[in-house]
Amino acid sequence: MSERRLNVPWxxxxxxxxxxxxxxxLWERMLFALCLLCAQVATTAPTGAATADAExxxxxxxxxxxxxxxxxSGDDPEGDLELxxxxxxxxAAQSIWNAVRKRVRSGEMPPRNKPPLAAxxxxxLLAWLDAVLGPEPKQVDTPGTVxxxxxxxxxxxxxxxxxGVAIEADELPADEIGHGFDTIGAVLSTSELLIETHMRLxxxxxxxxxxxxxxxxxxxxxVDGAKMGAGTASSARGKFRGLYSxxxxxxxxxxxxxxxxxxxxxxxxxxxxxxxxxxSLKVASREVLRADVSESTPNARTIEAFVRxxxxxxxxxVAFLNDFYAPADADAERRDRNLILEWFEIEGPLxxxxxxxxxxxxxxxxxxxxxxxxxxxxxxxxxxxxVEVDELTRVLDxxxxxxxxxxxxxxxxxxxxxSPNFLYRPxxxxxxxxxxxxxxxxxxxxxxxxxxIGEHATxxxxxxxxxxxxxxxxxxxxVDGGELLLRGQVRRMIADPRSxxxxxxxxxxxxxxxxxxxxxPDPKRFPDxxxxxxxxxxxEATMLFDSVLRERRPARALLDPGFTFVDxxxxxxxxxxxxxxxxxxxxxxxxxxRGGILGLAAVLTATSYPTRTSPSSRGKFVLEALLxxxxxxxxxxxxxxxxxxHGGEELSLRDRLEQHRSDEAxxxxxxxxxxxxxxxxxxxxxxxxxxxEGKFPIDSEGTLPDGRSFQxxxxxxxxxxxxxxxxxxLFEQLAIYAxxxxxxxxxxxxxxxxxxxxxxEPTLAGLIEELVESPEFRQR
Length: 780
Fold this sequence. Notes:
Blueprint: E1 14-15, E2 18-19, H1 23-41, H2 54-67, H3 94-106, H4 119-133, E3 148-149, H5 152-163, H6 192-209, E4 220-224, E5 234-237, E6 240-243, E7 247-255, E8 259-270, E9 277-283, E10 286-293, E11 302-309, E12 312-320, E13 324-325, E14 336-347, H7 357-363, H8 371-382, H9 389-399, H10 405-417, H11 420-423, E15 424-425, E16 430-433, E17 449-452, H12 455-466, H13 473-480, H14 486-495, H15 500-510, H16 514-518, H17 531-550, E18 563-566, H18 568-574, E19 585-588, H19 601-606, H20 615-626, H21 653-660, H22 664-678, E20 692-693, E21 696-697, E22 701-703, E23 709-711, H23 712-721, H24 724-739, H25 748-757, H26 764-773
């Protein structure tokens, strides 16, 4: 199988940490390169058409006429959905029919304030919809993934795994969110600020990944005392600085790397009283030396300290500790004690640094080989594919202009990391027929060629799905060998600690825990909530997902696993005894309210208001994140229910929401979401158990959209765990995150088949394996 290569002109030349041709030219070149890249990966999807179905007119339209057209027709149809105008199996209407099928199947339509569909009518309608939309959906525009940029989590993780260099994700601008995730290609835009940031980070990574040989003499800087930052009671004495009362003067410098440094000061004093001047030397607010200064003439005393310092900005300070003033002393020269700072000096780093991991692996004399070999290996891993000879030659031509071997490798790193081949994940389409042993989905015939993204792009898609990072050497070696065994790689990669990125990336976004970072419970009502508790809440959520994944537990264990993770702070919040210390540890739980997604304090706090719970937000979360049936958006102008609205504290929250639903504009949505949220009312706005809401006893009775009733969180979790919609929704969310695009009705068939193939009791890991093994995972 051949795969087209990208051939993108990329000619910026690093020179002394700056770009020689200027930012405007680079900006134009980046745009030109991206245009070329987009043009090369663009494909045209096949289209199809559906024929009219006589059964629609004979059997389906009468049902819609009797039960649906009254609301969904005319000048102002409900939800702007005009069903009466649709013509049977019209291909242009398939997305609308898919939404109708979801609402009818979940019991949302007809709404609860209308009589339900008769069993025969419901069966006929769903059978016709299944015939139209699946098992062989009519091929209209095939959903595709647009060119995807590395998001900032992926960028930081990739740099870590390629070079062993740590950068913080928040050094890059925040990414946009689409369909709940930061992996969606359509929203991962590029700005001039982002390009400049990538250039700056590439230079810094190159400097940290490849250290230059130290000079024979360590760098040394001396600053006159008068140039030190002035304290509250100091002044310049020519080149010196006098400290006339207890206080300090400071100097801040950016250190090139972590290492051993010598810090020196030249000092003398105006002596007075029985004691000599006393001074302190501080580094980063920490005292490293204290000394008496009895000398009273310039150039008489040098005080020196050797300290181990980190890289980056560091603040140094010289403090005067024992001011003395006696204006009545007979000796005028002994009336006032002052410290005089003549100069301040920093020398270092004095030690030879430990070479970074990349330098040890690639540039040591025994392994490094020629510059061509080093740069070839670098580009293969950084660009996640084999490199063409002309691409390698262009990078080598740029690197050759640097004076030393190490500087040439640095130049190559900068060029590699600022190329679209690194910053983007090109997925060039190629034609591939499914092997006979591959089970085709209903939407792909066994004998038809499908557009795939190639083995190297598939490996990258897998790696960024599970690790939010680049493929490792084991994955590279397998794909370079021509046989990519996806299921085996999934199991290996889930067992690797790097799969924690799936918990931190996917799980936190699926469970909408970004809202936990912004949550601000009222300190008067919830005085125990603080930043440590917030961090423990988030850790519990990610560790729960991670354990269900690694231990190959059933997916429904996410709802009621029988255990959780707590530290002393969170255990106290939950009322769990005998837990001490700040380390998170696993504890067993009896079946009940605590445990699982709906028992997580993180989820419960994120779906509450600062002063109270929100059954509406919690019910919406259940529908949206756990059942895949989000309610329609609220009508314009509808606000939040205030405490004073509909009776204030004279009525329970349930009664106030009941009155709120009397408004027709609110009833359609709240009739679905509030009854779900009421089942979690025993858990307060920070997830603590309660039996009363003020003076009112908690009523935790609720109902699902299909009419099934439950009492409290335990029964709600049991109903959701037995509902096939939960597993399907989880699979859909994983697919959106992995593929970087939204799903449409064209995806229904393969989702249905993949979930079925995972078994009657699918594990979370098994769902991931079925997703990765499906032909759709390899498609553009």
